[in-house]
């Protein structure tokens, strides 16, 4: 390996290459913290040419590569635990161009999402994909997992906002995909194939991002709800009566942890479920409609209480109750399930899943929250302090297998927005058929003939 790394240094003398133990540990893991990081080196290219050079070197020496963005993933997709070289794109973090006519921003893949949002705002526009990790996740990572977040209800997932990609394949070829075209029916859309591929087909190095007009003035409401059926009733009523920007739910258990982490109690008493709702608020008619719907909810029983933000600061406090959940749970090393179903299938699935989890996890605290508008549920199982990690993971994986079977019966997916990576790989069959997996494996053999691109992720 030392000789191979010397060859890489000779081939790319300007390449920044890290081998210190602390750096290998830092870049070799993501937020899962379940594998011991063990890369052999960290490459930090500054150009597309350097990425191409690294791929050609890796093919020649048969060394696996792990693409790395902000490493905020929760499925082990950016883990390097077997002597791989991590390719971190953090130095490729620039805005390359803005086209005001096409409303398009071209960026390098290592740029953080928050900087993209700020660049769009500086042009009087917005890049609307958004989630709590905006300050640390990268656009390349968002593309690799087709990230969704809190505004999918209004704007969709990442793939809706990618107008073009520049990709270095596992064969070392540079592909310029779609080139920003709105209409392009000239064969297969390889851009969409790369989105969500978790770096297993190639490395995204540049992206052309579609921008849109800034959102209308909005208002934020927090609802207290008696049960999950009421959550869906609230969503249906508010979706029909308001122009929803976001609709996020969480449980009393989730709120308890956020409050312990510094959040502010919104009500005088506890309630089983809560929903943060953001909606367009451009006129008095919008305010009247929202209040009328809330009153209907109280009368019909799907709402127990509610509060409407009286200022931007209070709106931020209400959103903090939802966006602060992941941070508040971090110390418990939670085991995370990220599942998706059709919205109509959610009630039946949730009732069965709650029974399953109560029976199989009686000793664990379980935190539910998610994006109701797109059918995405997050299930976080918290590790007791006195339970060894290996025992905790063994119990969780046993129940996840049962949960995957339940999802299959309800037509759901084991991964909504975090990817498959290493964590969900055993459960891919059930979400995908064997025939689909075989097609995916065939595509990988074409674009990554030596299996050097993030091998072992998604499937073997």
Automatic annotation (TrEMBL):
This is FAD/FMN-containing dehydrogenase. Belongs to the FAD-binding oxidoreductase/transferase type 4 family. It comes from the Bacteria. Its cofactor is FAD. GO terms for biological process: respiratory electron transport chain. It comes from Solilutibacter tolerans. One of its GO terms (molecular function) is FAD binding. The lineage of its organism: Bacteria, Pseudomonadati, Pseudomonadota, Gammaproteobacteria, Lysobacterales. Pfam families: FAD-oxidase_C, FAD_binding_4. Residues 35-214 form the FAD-binding PCMH-type domain. Keywords: FAD, Flavoprotein, Oxidoreductase.
């Amino acid at each position: 390996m030392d000789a191979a790394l010397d060859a890489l240094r000779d081939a790319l003398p300007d390449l920044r290459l890290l081998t210190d133990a602390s750096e290998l540990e830092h870049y070799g893991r993501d937020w899962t913290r379940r594998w011991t990081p063990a890369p052999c080196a960290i490459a930090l290219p500054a150009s597309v040419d350097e990425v191409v050079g690294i791929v050609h070197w890796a093919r020649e020496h048969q060394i696996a590569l792990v693409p790395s963005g902000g490493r905020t993933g929760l499925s082990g997709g950016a883990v390097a635990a077997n002597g791989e070289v991590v390719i971190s794109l953090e130095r490729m973090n620039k805005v390359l161009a803005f086209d005001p006519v096409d409303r398009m921003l071209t960026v390098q893949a290592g740029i953080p999402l928050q900087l993209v949002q700020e660049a769009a705002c500086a042009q009087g526009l917005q890049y609307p994909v958004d989630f709590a990790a905006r300050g640390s996740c990268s656009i390349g990572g968002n593309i690799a997992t087709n990230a969704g977040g809190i505004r999918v209800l209004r704007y969709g997932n990442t793939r809706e906002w990618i107008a073009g990609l520049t990709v270095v394949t596992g064969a070392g070829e540079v592909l310029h995909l779609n080139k920003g075209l709105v209409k392009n029916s000239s064969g297969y859309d390889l851009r969409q194939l790369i989105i969500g591929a978790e770096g297993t087909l190639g490395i995204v190095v540049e992206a052309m991002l579609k921008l849109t007009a800034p959102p209308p003035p909005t208002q934020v409401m927090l609802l207290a709800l008696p049960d999950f059926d009421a959550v869906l009733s609230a969503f249906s009523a508010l979706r029909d009566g308001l122009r929803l920007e976001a609709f996020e739910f969480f449980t009393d258990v989730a709120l308890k942890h956020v409050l312990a982490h510094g959040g502010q109690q919104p009500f005088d008493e506890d309630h089983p479920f809560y929903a943060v709702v953001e909606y367009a608020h451009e006129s008095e008619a919008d305010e009247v409609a929202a209040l009328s719907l809330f009153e209907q909810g109280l009368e019909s029983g799907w709402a127990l209480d509610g509060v409407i933000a009286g200022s931007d600061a209070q709106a931020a406090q209400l959103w903090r109750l939802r966006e602060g959940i992941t941070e508040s749970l971090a110390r418990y090393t939670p085991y995370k399930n990220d599942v998706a179903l059709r919205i109509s299938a959610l009630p039946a699935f949730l009732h069965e899943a709650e029974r399953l989890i109560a029976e199989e996890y009686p000793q664990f605290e379980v935190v539910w929250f998610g994006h109701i508008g797109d059918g995405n549920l997050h299930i976080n199982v918290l590790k007791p302090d006195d339970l060894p990690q290996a025992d905790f993971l063994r119990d969780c994986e046993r129940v996840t297998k049962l949960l995957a079977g339940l999802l299959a019966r309800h037509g759901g997916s084991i991964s909504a927005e975090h990817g498959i990576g290493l964590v969900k790989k055993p459960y891919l069959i059930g979400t995908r058929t064997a025939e689909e997996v075989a097609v995916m494996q065939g595509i990988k053999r074409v674009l990554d003939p030596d299996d050097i691109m993030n091998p072992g992720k998604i499937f073997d």
